[in-house]
Amino acid sequence: MTERLTIYDTTLRDGQQTQGVQFSTEEKQQIAHALDALGVDYIEGGWPGANPTDNAFFEAAPQTTARLTAFGMTKRPGISAQNDDVLAAVLNAGTKSVCIVGKTHEFHVTKALGITLDENLTLLRESIAHLVASGREALFDAEHFFDGYKANPDYALSCLKTVLEAGARWIVICDTNGGTLPAEVGRITAEVIAAGIPGDHLGIHTHDDTENAVACTLAAVDAGARQIQGTLNGLGERCGNANLTTLIPILLLKEPYASRFETGITTKALSGLTRTSRMLDEILNRVPHKQAGFVGASAFAHKAGLHASAIAKDPTTYEHIDPALVGNARIIPMSNQAGQSNLRKRLTEAGLHVDKGDPALGRILEAVKAREAEGYAYDTAQASFELLAREALGQMPELFEVKRYRVTVERRKNKYDKMVSLSEAVVVVKVDGEKRQSVSESMDEVGSDRGPVNALAKALAKDLGQYSSMIEDMRLVDFKVRITQGGTEAVTRVIIDSEDGQGNRWSTVGVSANIVDASFEALLDAIRWKLVRDLKGPKG
Amino acid sequence: MTERLTIYDTTLRDGQQTQGVQFSTEEKQQIAHALDALGVDYIEGGWPGANPTDNAFFEAAPQTTARLTAFGMTKRPGISAQNDDVLAAVLNAGTKSVCIVGKTHEFHVTKALGITLDENLTLLRESIAHLVASGREALFDAEHFFDGYKANPDYALSCLKTVLEAGARWIVICDTNGGTLPAEVGRITAEVIAAGIPGDHLGIHTHDDTENAVACTLAAVDAGARQIQGTLNGLGERCGNANLTTLIPILLLKEPYASRFETGITTKALSGLTRTSRMLDEILNRVPHKQAGFVGASAFAHKAGLHASAIAKDPTTYEHIDPALVGNARIIPMSNQAGQSNLRKRLTEAGLHVDKGDPALGRILEAVKAREAEGYAYDTAQASFELLAREALGQMPELFEVKRYRVTVERRKNKYDKMVSLSEAVVVVKVDGEKRQSVSESMDEVGSDRGPVNALAKALAKDLGQYSSMIEDMRLVDFKVRITQGGTEAVTRVIIDSEDGQGNRWSTVGVSANIVDASFEALLDAIRWKLVRDLKGPKG
């Protein structure tokens, strides 16, 4: 008999507390859909009333299978739950489930709220009862529960019992400051259950301040808690929350959890985990953490010579799971034979067949290494990788040649005495032996793309002779810039994501000390990839 | 009575297996000195004979208080320990302590070594005996011990007993593949000790594949192991080794460890931990992990408004330790999550005193929120935040006005038929009622900054009248770009880090649909902040 574990995601709320993270409403929607596709049970969407982004998110709330949950706090002292406008704003979001945070640590009751311990119990009771009376499923986040329990276990427990009696479906015990170690989390969780809070009403919420958030969560599950809270990629306040990207594969793949529990996450969804993790980093323009468990680019990279040779005989010698289960891949450093089999796999994905042992494989590896030393990165820029491989294989058709270009950005007052910008680009190309010159401009206040890169893209696309019609449906959808190291100096790396009318999406990379040149190089690759693809037909 | 815990660092050996890390000999020496200053007991320096870097390191071995240890493997089958040249190379490094890795998992004995289980026992015995006979302290790394124990506990234990009887001072049980969870590590460690391996001869070596390396190490210590192995910043094969940068403060500051154990690390050395961690990242040119426990830049950053206001009353409300104990610092970032008390604290840090309840606080918060809705972010761009606050407070001096600017990037063939780029910028400013026009250019192949932003920065700085001399020592040190949402459309956000000759470093932000305009705005803020700061004197 398996037991059900409930997974509660708070990427959109606690994850938003990550220093440097500021979601837009659209980004929150994108992430909500990704979480729903993954199969979590709850998606905590934010705090309605706390900021304009969260308000806008709940106003046009995404349709999800997961329970979309609004977060807030217990009513304030001195007013009734009915008259508390902060709580009202949370309820007005109209979600079926509402999670409110409240105090269970005597020090915080008297110090932060400045009320008596009994007054806090009343406040907890009335807040939860108000949610239930409003027809909502009520969840209670017991803030600082572990520290509170250590200071005054009777009082901390009486808070939990009060909200349980008031009708809370889930009571989530939080190690808010992240300082409690796994053994203590396990012991206290067991004591909470022994005191009468049923495990199937008990959740665990931990933080990673001692790098133990995952272990603390497992300790609470071992002790009987049946809801786990966390975030994708371990985003969150300070050092982050418990990392669901790690916990999910542990619970689904590792014993004793795999046999004992079931969750809403399917094997198929699990195999998309690495992509989901990288997608979140892309949305946030964060560098993916290479050494992340399960989904990191290095998680199955075998660098030690002894390991690499054993892996070639049997991957279980140095891998605790099959990387494909989480959508990740084995990496054997590019320098040895195994590097070539890796490369062949990637070429096949691009529709390029190269025989085992073909000397071209060595040439491509060398070219990739040389480019990477200059600052290029081909992890995501698969389209640029493919073009590089085609060059090395002599399979790159002659398309067109850019002879020169010039782009100007000018910012000055217009006739209404308002500062406006104008970008103008001139591009000279040679197609089929013929020189063609195009000019394009992007103006302030017209559309949303108004910079030099857009002006260059428009000019380049304007007249490519026989190819012009083939790139009409192309669109630049994202643009990421990073300063990186190219040899001994700092260079700019630009990654461009493009899309076409057939729903294809591809990424290209450009590197230069000049941001415009780097962007132009990535743009050129984007167009060349599209042309090569369409010239050879969709399946090569 | 406290017990002694031994700390064994393998940054220079297992840490070298990190994907993308390639130490030079000089870097290994630098790191060895930093580890010695920290106070670890053992420094594993590398594998003599395995590569030229490690050979050179041991040839000119640094003088350390810690025991410098050479790493190697047990003798190969079919030759005597005396005649094994791989083992001889390890001994020839001349270290007092030698650690060798060997098999304890029946699958690896028969599959990887291709010998019988008994032959492996003989091999282990002879290898350790040879180290002891050579007058060395012998350590044994029991590779794949946990997986081996799960497969065949009797055989795995017989390997440990064999090396103990042969004279090994320490037996280190390794979770080589990183797949064993903390509860199981604790149980097996206790069983190993119950089977006769004394805890004060037992070490633990874990990997972070399930994000549990720290928890697994603590579980082994709880069970009685008295040596812990790990690396600085958790470097290491795949997802890395147990992170000593996290384990050290846990063992020194958190209970039950702080009262129960002593180590070679002093309180003073602990207060240098954050610097040691950042220094290692600098040596490796890695971006420090902001959310790292204890030493991360975000480890004590309080972004949630409720947290920030409580922290202002009493830091223990949301901090599990005092950040100064590990040489880190508290940060209250500004964002639309933040409340007025947070804001006042941040203003005070900027030398701006505003009374509690001053209506200006509300105005500043509104201004910040409105800007964030347009795509600005003030978490890191403290200098731009300060300028915004000064405007709202009417404390922003008139400096200069930019009337217009124009920047051109041109790429074409030079007279040697090589493609080169030229960026040219013209800026017109009004300073002290006088219009000044400056022009500047950045060429390909000259210096490392060759883009339009650099050309604009140079033109802007060229003639600012009385202010020119004040910004002479300013330098743009980093430049980050991302596409984000500004209201309903995509905009570009640029964050610029600047530095001056007095060692100040500050960050500014600009947002526009045009990347050049966004960059120019961030540049202007950088100059304005520097001028305001120097005009009012370093302490306001």
Automatic annotation (TrEMBL), chains A, B:
NCBIfam families: citramal_synth (TIGR00977). The keyword Transferase applies. GO terms for biological process: isoleucine biosynthetic process; L-leucine biosynthetic process. It comes from the Bacteria. Its EC number is 2.3.3.21. It catalyses: pyruvate + acetyl-CoA + H2O = (3R)-citramalate + CoA + H(+). It comes from Sulfitobacter noctilucicola. One of its GO terms (molecular function) is 2-isopropylmalate synthase activity. Gene3D superfamilies: 1.10.238.260, 3.30.160.270, Aldolase class I (3.20.20.70). Pathway: Amino-acid biosynthesis; L-isoleucine biosynthesis; 2-oxobutanoate from pyruvate: step 1/3. Belongs to the alpha-IPM synthase/homocitrate synthase family. This is Citramalate synthase. Pfam families: HCS_D2, HMGL-like, LeuA_dimer. Residues 5-271 form the Pyruvate carboxyltransferase domain. InterPro entries: 2-isopropylmalate_synth_dimer, AIPM/Hcit_synth_CS, Aldolase_TIM, Citramal_synthase, LeuA/HCS_post-cat, LeuA_allosteric_dom_sf, PYR_CT. Keywords: Acyltransferase, Amino-acid biosynthesis, Branched-chain amino acid biosynthesis, Isoleucine biosynthesis, Transferase.
